[in-house]
Write a structure and sequence with these properties.
single chain; alpha+beta; 5'-nucleotidase,  domain 2; 2 domains; four-stranded mixed β-sheet; about 40% helix; about 20% strand; disordered N terminus; disordered C terminus
Length: about 325
């Protein structure tokens, strides 16, 4: 990456941090402004009408108020937040169990990328009532680098997939599907439904073969003239530039009617209902042939598409009102 690109990326990252700080500050100010303690302090500090302009410049009033359980709740604020309380509390409920740690890193965005891609494919197939040949998503859209072993909550999925990206279906020819798989391989993005063998040429992954694998494990060749069903996120379609601009040539592009986040939440719930845990899947969907690069990156997800941001996401200020 050139120095100018690095400088631009760091500048954008700094701006995002400043924006986050301002947003958190506004939230905290609003919360304080609604509190009786703050309102009382404002009244105490307000000068009386009889004070002269000179008096107002020279006299100051200060007071300290201990903010604890002795301060009564503001009924107005409680009423304002009431509709959101059940939704916020639901985020902390357990929806599944992670058998072993899921994490990004390497080809296909690691076991965490496999989990998300498998969930997309399973939920799209269930909602559409038909088999899905391939599901893909970008590694940069995964905003947590791992999901720890143990209880899995809705909040974890919100932090992993915070954006309102919607699932869409489309039809691709076999030729278009092969070109897409070459791009997925080059960017190390996540996919479910294909078995790819590749080698490294000048330290870059190069596709050797690609076959489709059904949900039952049946393998089939990709016919260049046949039509295949792809499910992905509208974000990649809307880029309209870069490698994923090829999606603009797909046929029968239709929304599925669910966000990627809600699809993964429903997938976890379905697995839990079937008495299955979420476990890391490092299968042979990507299989390297021959030697690998001598200098291997750790956690490399390929070049980010324009508009992708940093990795980690936390709810603003990590503050919730119950």
């Amino acid at each position: 990456m050139s120095n100018s690109k690095i400088g631009t990326y760091k500048t954008k990252k700094f701006i995002r941090r400043i924006q986050g700080f301002i947003y958190c500050s506004v939230l905290l100010f609003i919360g304080a402004a609604f509190s009786p303690a703050f309102q009382g302090q404002q009244a105490a500090k307000s000068p009386t009408a009889s004070k002269t302009e000179e008096d107002q410049k020279t006299e100051t009033h200060a007071a300290e108020t201990l903010v604890d359980s002795s301060i009564p709740n503001d009924s107005g604020v409680d009423k304002l937040l009431e509709p959101y309380r059940p939704k916020v509390q639901a985020l902390e409920l357990k929806i599944g169990t992670v058998d072993r740690k899921l994490q990004t890193g390497g080809m296909g965005a690691g076991s965490l990328g496999n989990f998300v891609a498998d969930g997309i494919r399973a939920q799209a197939s269930a909602r559409l009532g038909k088999s899905i040949s391939l599901a893909i998503t970008n590694g940069g859209g995964l905003r947590k680098s791992s999901l720890a072993e143990g209880d899995l909550r809705e909040r974890d999925i919100f932090e992993l997939l915070p954006f309102e990206n919607k699932l869409i279906e489309m039809d691709l020819t076999g030729d278009q599907l092969l070109a897409l798989l070459r791009l997925v391989l080059a960017k190390r993005h996540a996919q479910s439904g294909a078995r790819i063998t590749y080698r490294f040429n000048d330290n870059k992954p190069e596709l050797i073969t690609a076959k489709l694998v059904s949900s039952t494990g049946t393998e089939s060749k990709i016919n260049p003239r046949e039509t295949y069903k792809l499910v992905t996120i509208d974000y990649l379609l809307n880029l309209q530039s870069g490698g994923y601009s090829m999606l603009q040539h797909a046929k029968n592009i239709r929304p599925i009617g669910v966000s990627i986040r809600d699809a993964i939440i429903d997938y976890v719930k379905a697995e839990t209902a079937a008495n299955r845990r979420i476990h890391p899947s490092k299968d042979d969907r990507f299989k390297v042939i021959g030697p690998e690069p001598t200098e291997r990156g750790t956690g490399k997800q390929g070049k980010r598409e324009k508009g992708e941001q940093g990795k980690e996401f936390l709810f603003p200020c990590s503050v919730f009102w119950y």
